[in-house]
Design a protein that fits this description.
The protein is an all-alpha fold. The chain has seven helices and no strands.
Length: 137
């Protein structure tokens, strides 16, 4: 069994890193997720910790990725894209409760708190509303 897998890997049929890149690209295209969520999904798909660590290095520094890797942009860009898809052309709400729900939506998608906070603040600021959200969210 191991020799068969080794042979398939040698021929390029089994490539966990290529699968991880493909998975991230599909997620970015159809349902943007944060790095943490992508890594959890890859673990559930059976990808080993060493491949996930190598993927994390590429993911955080896409300029180091191979030419054929179509890794997504920055975490902030992906969170902004997820927010835009979630709003579906509607204006960003400015009331605290709605903003908190949107923040939790992004957190459930695997984006870290700092990224979510930055994306929400920039979206609220773009609406022209004053920053009445405060620093305690």
């Amino acid at each position: 069994m191991a020799s068969t897998l080794d042979r398939l890997a040698e021929l390029g049929y089994v490539d966990d890193m290529a699968f991880a890149r493909w998975w991230a690209e599909q997620r970015d295209r159809h349902a943007p997720r944060g790095r943490r969520m992508l890594e959890a999904e890859l673990r559930r798909q059976g990808i080993g910790a060493d491949v996930i660590e190598a993927f994390r290095v590429e993911y955080e520094a896409p300029e180091r990725a191979p030419e054929d890797a179509a890794l997504p942009g920055s975490e902030t860009d992906r969170a902004r894209d997820a927010l835009e898809r979630h709003l579906r052309g509607r204006a960003m709400p400015t009331d605290r409760q709605a903003v908190q729900r949107i923040g939790m939506f992004l957190m459930r998608r695997g984006f870290d708190a700092g990224t979510v906070r930055d994306v929400i603040r920039s979206a609220v600021a773009a609406t022209g509303a004053d920053d009445s959200l405060g620093d305690d969210d």
